[in-house]
């Protein structure tokens, strides 16, 4: 019985064809700018998303950090969601390593930040205050897709108020596939975008930061400083390129699997939040403590939480989803 791991879409294994692409990758020393595969990935993604330049980095955390540090100096401030990954799940890196003060804003249920609240949080030019420099959004945000007209409004407001706009697009492609638009329809509104190759796209490692030539040059210096300059990194970039060229459209399968899972759990009487992409959130309440062990006995890995997150990905097939539904039915009557 193969393990079904629903904790995250980070748990995917590289496919056989992806491993072949990694084996065949031409390599060089990327710190010298001489890894042809890394260079190809950076040029390819910058082009695809409509930016001048891009930078391959080991993780999404580093990609966001470099983006924030490239936009903001010490004593600057960025506005961010209270539940955003950059604020809550990255060890406070922007503050610790960048001396950038976060100004968190409570998010809306659709995953956006109310732009009126954001505007109200922008500090006046006064030496008492940190300088508000940047707004950081996340898309998808806990599986929710930010509407394109919202992004256009965020672009307009940030331009008007002199702020830069960064996207934590760890799951950018889930949003694009869900909307049925090229990813650049989303990224055109931003000054910088961080994309994870290691989530639903299925690469083992890697993220890419995209932006202007000047911003990426700054980020490249910062990448070296934080120890992210990698050498024959093309072996990893090859996996990312393969994912971008072959494993984007299949995200629709993950979304369909999540939708089916959500519908069936709801049918079984669970309280399930509306599903948009590859995440199903289930309110377990006081039974949260029992779920992990119960599912583990049935070969299903979940993280125990009162608001349980189930994530579909390329290693969870339709048969796997049926097994999960059966296990939840058993848990219900247990
Ligand atoms: C996973 C994730 C990141 C960071 O990626 P790592 O590669 O795990 O550092 C950033 N933002 C979001 C929304 C994520 O889900």
UniProtKB/TrEMBL annotation:
<feature type="domain" description="Aromatic amino acid beta-eliminating lyase/threonine aldolase">
    <location>
        <begin position="5"/>
        <end position="284"/>
    </location>
</feature>
<dbReference type="GO" id="GO:0005829">
    <property type="term" value="C:cytosol"/>
</dbReference>
<dbReference type="InterPro" id="IPR015422">
    <property type="entry name" value="PyrdxlP-dep_Trfase_small"/>
</dbReference>
<dbReference type="InterPro" id="IPR015421">
    <property type="entry name" value="PyrdxlP-dep_Trfase_major"/>
</dbReference>
<comment type="similarity">
    <text>Belongs to the threonine aldolase family.</text>
</comment>
<keyword id="KW-0456">Lyase</keyword>
<comment type="subunit">
    <text>Homotetramer.</text>
</comment>
<feature type="modified residue" description="N6-(pyridoxal phosphate)lysine">
    <location>
        <position position="199"/>
    </location>
</feature>
<dbReference type="InterPro" id="IPR001597">
    <property type="entry name" value="ArAA_b-elim_lyase/Thr_aldolase"/>
</dbReference>
<dbReference type="GO" id="GO:0006545">
    <property type="term" value="P:glycine biosynthetic process"/>
</dbReference>
<dbReference type="GO" id="GO:0008732">
    <property type="term" value="F:L-allo-threonine aldolase activity"/>
</dbReference>
<protein>
    <submittedName>
        <fullName>Low-specificity L-threonine aldolase</fullName>
    </submittedName>
</protein>
<keyword id="KW-0663">Pyridoxal phosphate</keyword>
<dbReference type="GO" id="GO:0006567">
    <property type="term" value="P:L-threonine catabolic process"/>
</dbReference>
<dbReference type="InterPro" id="IPR015424">
    <property type="entry name" value="PyrdxlP-dep_Trfase"/>
</dbReference>
<dbReference type="InterPro" id="IPR023603">
    <property type="entry name" value="Low_specificity_L-TA-like"/>
</dbReference>
<dbReference type="Pfam" id="PF01212">
    <property type="entry name" value="Beta_elim_lyase"/>
</dbReference>
């Amino acid at each position: 019985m193969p393990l079904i791991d629903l904790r995250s879409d980070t748990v995917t294994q590289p496919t056989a064809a992806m491993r072949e692409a990694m084996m065949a990758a031409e390599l060089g020393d990327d710190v010298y700018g001489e890894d042809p595969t890394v260079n190809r990935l950076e040029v390819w993604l910058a082009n695809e998303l409509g930016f001048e330049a891009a930078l391959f980095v080991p993780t999404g955390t580093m990609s966001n950090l470099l983006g924030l540090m490239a936009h903001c100096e010490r004593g600057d401030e960025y506005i961010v969601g209270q539940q955003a990954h950059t604020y809550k799940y990255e060890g406070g890196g922007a503050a610790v390593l960048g001396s950038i003060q976060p100004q968190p804003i409570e998010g809306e249920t659709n995953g956006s930040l109310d732009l009126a609240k954001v505007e109200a949080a922008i500090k006046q030019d006064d030496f008492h205050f940190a300088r508000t420099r940047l707004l950081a959004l996340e898309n998808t945000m806990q599986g929710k897709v930010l509407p394109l007209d919202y992004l256009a409004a965020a672009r307009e407001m940030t331009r008007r108020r002199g702020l830069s706009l960064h996207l934590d697009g760890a799951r950018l492609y889930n949003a694009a596939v869900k909307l049925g638009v090229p990813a650049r329809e989303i990224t055109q509104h931003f000054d910088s975008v961080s994309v994870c190759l290691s989530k639903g796209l299925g690469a083992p490692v890697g993220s890419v930061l995209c932006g202007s030539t000047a911003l990426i040059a700054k980020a490249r210096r910062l990448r070296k400083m934080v120890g992210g300059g990698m050498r024959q990194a093309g072996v990893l970039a090859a996996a990312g390129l393969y994912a971008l060229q072959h494993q984007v459209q299949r995200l629709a399968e993950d979304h369909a699997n999540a939708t089916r899972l959500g519908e069936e759990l709801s049918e079984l009487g669970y309280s399930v939040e509306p599903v948009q992409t590859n995440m199903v959130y289930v309110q377990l309440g006081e039974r949260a403590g029992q779920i992990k062990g119960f599912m583990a006995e049935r070969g299903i890995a979940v993280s125990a939480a009162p608001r349980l997150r189930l994530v579909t990905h390329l290693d969870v097939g339709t048969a796997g989803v049926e097994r999960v539904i059966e296990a939840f039915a058993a848990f219900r009557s247990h």
